[in-house]
Structures are given as structure tokens and as C-alpha cells.
Amino acid sequence: MATSTTNALAGEERSGPPTKTPDGETGRRRSALLHRLDLKGAPYAFVAPFFVVFAAFSFYPLVYTAWISLHHVELATLDSMQWVAFDNYVDLFKDSRFWNALQNTITIGVISTVPQLLMALGMAHLLNYRMRASLFFRVASLVPYATSVGAAALVFTMLFERDFGMINWVLGWVGIDPLDWEADKWPAQVAISTIVIWRWTGYNALLYLAAMQAIPAERYEAASLDGASRWKQFTHVTVPGIRSTVVFTIVLSTIGATQLFGEPLIFGQGPNGVTGGADNQYQTLGLLLYEEGWKNYQMGRAATVAWAMFLLLILVFAAQRLIRRLRPRTP
Amino acid sequence: MTVNSLPVRTDAPVRTSAPKTPRTGRRLLRIRAGRQHHAGPLAYVLLAVMAIVSIFPLYWTMVAASTDNTRVSQTPPPFLPGPNLFSNLARAWDEAAMGKAMINSLIVAGVIALSTVLFATLAGFAFAKLRFKGRNILLTLVIGTMMVPPQLGVVPLFMMMSELGWSQQLPAVIFPTLVSAVGVFFMRQYLSEALPDELVEAGRVDGAHSLRIFWSIVLPVARPAMAVLFMITFVHAWNDFFWPFVVLDMTNPTVPVALTQLSAGYVRDQSLIMAGALLGTLPLLAMFIVFGRQIVSGIMAGAVKG
Predict the structure, then answer these.
(1) Torsion sign (Cα): B212, B216, B221, B224
(2) Which fold would CATH assign to domain A95-326?
(3) Residues of A whose CB is below 8 A from B221
(4) CATH of B96-301, one of 1.10.3720.10, 2.60.120.430, 3.30.70.2740, 3.40.50.2300
(5) Is the N or the C terminus of chain B less surrounded, counting Cβ atoms within 10 Å?
(6) Which pairing describes strands A71-74 and A77-83: parallel, antiparallel, or unpaired?
(7) ipTM of this predicted complex?
(8) Cβ–Cβ of A7/B206 closer than 8 Å?
(9) In this predicted model, what pLDDT tens digit does every residue of A103-155 receive, in sequence order?
């Protein structure tokens, strides 16, 4: 169908330019030139919008962040930048709030990412069975993904409420005393991780499922001929088969974890929650960045926190690489 | 977590020729049935638990939004909807600026999704089917940009927006996200399989220029993938939080920003909060109910395979 429309359009075009130009020879040459220009230039024109927008609104700000982090800049007077060299970094490294935020970011990152990906793996395995209502289960697992951070954090704040929250009520059945999920450090971090886990597990499970379905059936047949149990098949065929997807989700979850902001902000306290609890017990680097810039009006220091986050990310990936290098390869 | 967007297959080689049997677009996005064992009763039980855990918080949002403040704070908590759903929704719409926020979010997410789809299809077509110098390097660069968390550039971005006079205004939220690397890659993967080279060449032989080929050959083929990309981008733009929270204020918020305001008061009206949360989620939920199959298949089609 598409071909016929093209022919029609092309035909209409062929009867266009040549008849209009008085001199047929120059007209043809000009259209040949235009054609070459189109062949050479069009691809660049097509990819240009992406690169222009990325350069202007992502790359340039990232680099400029480094420059700002060497200055004293206040929110109210953004045009006056005062060179302070590495003072912001020295202050940051002397600030116990920074180390606290760094530690919280790492612990919440681990508590939220590890169970999330393991559960996603199990969920994908279940979804991979031949079954009834498979579409329903898949869509259901994506419902949390459709919920915004705001809505999810608000609901979980209520579910984790100390006095009338449903989670303390259920824990009461098994004889556990009510926990103060907001005020105590570890319960708060677990609660925040729960929000992250709830929102992203189903999404990751679908990614794993897609990868699992691409594993050739023969590999399973060969394994079962060798007498491998279901569990052995899972660990020896399924998991290696989706390795690159697993790596991909680890990378994305790690990036997400270093940037964590909305969940701890809204959990409990709303827009005044940038301190991450009364004792900063769940303040992440993202919250610290916001607090420095938009509550303390110190944009230079906010930029410094941003670069510290970037550094953390690079360190984590370097460590991941190193661990993979050092680990003996299994045959 | 804006970076946690649509996944892509990063290990696929750049294909220069069409596959032997060009597959039609819709089939590429169709859900494949699992080819493993049949699910036993245990699997169904586990899946049911999983579905309940996924859906329950939203169900309970609805329950809490339909009762009143005293009922919500009782032990045991209510499990069945009460009579006040619509009055609470109306209150959230008026009092909490949710009405304005919904319209703002609709504009922001709509514009971002449209432009992302347009530019991603253009670039995806170029990367999949056109030959030009530096194509592979540029494509690698596109993939590399996915690894840059957008949050890191907020300070200069904020300064840029106040210089442009866009602080507290929607363009400040729209412009930085007009394109998406994931979208470009998704469309490239799709078009390199769904669009036969012969079709593009036929257009060239007929003398059509590149933009015309894009318009009358590529767009019809790309339509199913574009629809999926539109929906997924819409979801992300609707839920995006950090940057809108930084650059917008309560007089002109998007939905996630307005939601933070709901819980800020000293006396918390829990039903009102939940009504706001429900209101802000309803449009996406409606989309998932109608187009769930397409969204699921889109996310799976973009996934890293093996």
C-alpha cells in the first residue's frame, strides 16, 4: 500500500519542477545537485534535533555544573559568581550531613535494588509459564509503574502510619509491636525502599520475561535430557540466558538509586521533607542537593553535591567492573 | 527515576540490509505466548498474590478517597469504599489545585510525547536505513547519553531557565525533555526490522526526496511503534518529578508537584490527600486499562534480548 502512494506522489513530483524551469539542462543539473545534497545532508538533519536538544539541556548543564561548583553562587543573585576554587568541596567533605546522606543513599540503594531485582526474576519466571489470563497478570504487574512517585509515596505513607497504618495493624497479628516507620532510621529506610520496590519490580520483571522468551527452547530440551531439575534449568539455562538484560537493569537501578529524591521527600512530610526526617535519618544525596540549593540558597554547594553524586556513580561502576574482572569465570 | 525509562537492546549489531523475511510491524509488537511448562496451582497462587500486591495500594487509595478522615484513621482500617468518593474528588480538584495541575500535566506530557515520537522516528529512520559518515559513532553516542542522569545538571539548567524567563512556566519542563535517547534507539530497532530496504529504494528511484520518503513510506510502517512510544513517553513525562518540582511552584504545578502540597498541611486531611493521589493517577490508569496490551508489548519489544 505504501509503495503505491509513493508512486503516486513521485509521479506528481516528476511533472513538477522540470516543466517550470525554462532551461531544461540547468534545471536537471540543479535537481541532481539537490538530490545529492538530500542524500548527504538529510541523515544529519534527521538526527540533529536529538543532538541539539541533548547538547543544550543535558550535556552543557552537566559540564557547567563542574564550573559552578568552584564558585559561590546564591539563588537570589544568580548572575554574580564568586570564584572560590575547591572551597565548596572542602566544606562538603567536612560536613557530616554529606557523609550521612551518602551513607543513606547507599543503604537505601542496596535495600531497594537487590530484593527488587531478585523478586523481578522470580516474577518473570512465573509469568513465563504457559497460562490463562497471562495478559491480566502482565498488565497488573505494570500498574505500580503507572503510579507517580507522588501518589505512591502518599499511599505508602498512610499504610506505614504509626498509629492506624495497615502495616502495623497486620504486624500486630503476629505479635510485633507497632513500629515508628517515620521517626526511626532503619524502619524509615525500609519503608522508602518498599515504595521503590513496589514501583519498579513489575517493570523489571517484564524486561526479564522478554529476554527469557528469546532463549531457544532447544537449550531447555538439552538440559532436561541431561536430567537437569527445574531449579538447575533455571540457574543454568534461564539466568545465563538473560545475562545482558540483568546487567542492563542493574545499571539502570543503580543510576536510579543514586538519584533517589521523590520517595524520601514525600514520605511523611511533603515539601518540607528535604531534611529527610527530623534527624536526617533518611536524607539522600538528592535531597541534600535540593536543600543546599533551594532551601539554603547555596547553588555553588548544590552543584558540588551533584558532582559528588556523579563521582559516586562512576565509582560504583568501576567497582562493578573490577569485581567482574576478579571473579573467576565459571565454565 | 527518569533515567529508568524504556529499555533497549544495546547489543544488537547495526544491520545494513533488510532481514530475509520482512516481518510486518504489528507482529513485532505482539505478545508471544510462553513456550515453557504449563503453570501449576502454586504458580497461579503466587501470581495472584503478586497481582494483589500490585493493585492493592491503588485500590486502597480509592477506598480512603471515598470515606472521611475519621473513618480512615480507625483500626482496623476500612476495606470497602465509602460514600464520599465524588465529593472528595471535587474537593481535591478545587482546593488542592489538582484541576490546574491535571491540565498542565496533560499539556506537558502531550507535547513531550509528541515531540519525542517525531524526533525519535526521524533519527531512528536515519540510523536504521540511511547511510552517512559517522553513523555508528553517533549511534554509540546516543546510547551513551542514556547513562547520564538528568538530575546532575539541575543547577545550571535552573539558571538557564531563569535567564530565559521560563521559571515557574511549562516550557521549562517541556524543553529539556523534547527528545529521548531511548526513543531514538527503540525506533531504530523497530524500523531496521519492520521497514524493508526495497521500499526506501523504490521511493528513491521514483525521485522522492528524503523527507517525502519519511512522510509517505516510513511513517505508515512506523505507526504501531510510534503509538507505543507515545504512550510510554507520556507515562514518564506525566510522572516525572524532580525537575518539575525544582522549577515549578504551587501556583502552576504539574500533578506530581501538586501532590506534594497535599500532604504539607499541619492537619492532614487523609481522604483529601488520597483523593488527590487517585485523581492524578486516573488518566494513566485509564490508558493502561484500554491499551495495556500495547504498553506491555512495547516494553517487552524494547527489552535487551539474550
Answers:
(1) positive
(2) MetI-like fold (1.10.3720)
(3) 2
(4) 1.10.3720.10
(5) C
(6) antiparallel
(7) 0.84
(8) yes
(9) 999 999 999 999 999 999 999 999 998 888 889 999 999 999 999 888 999 99
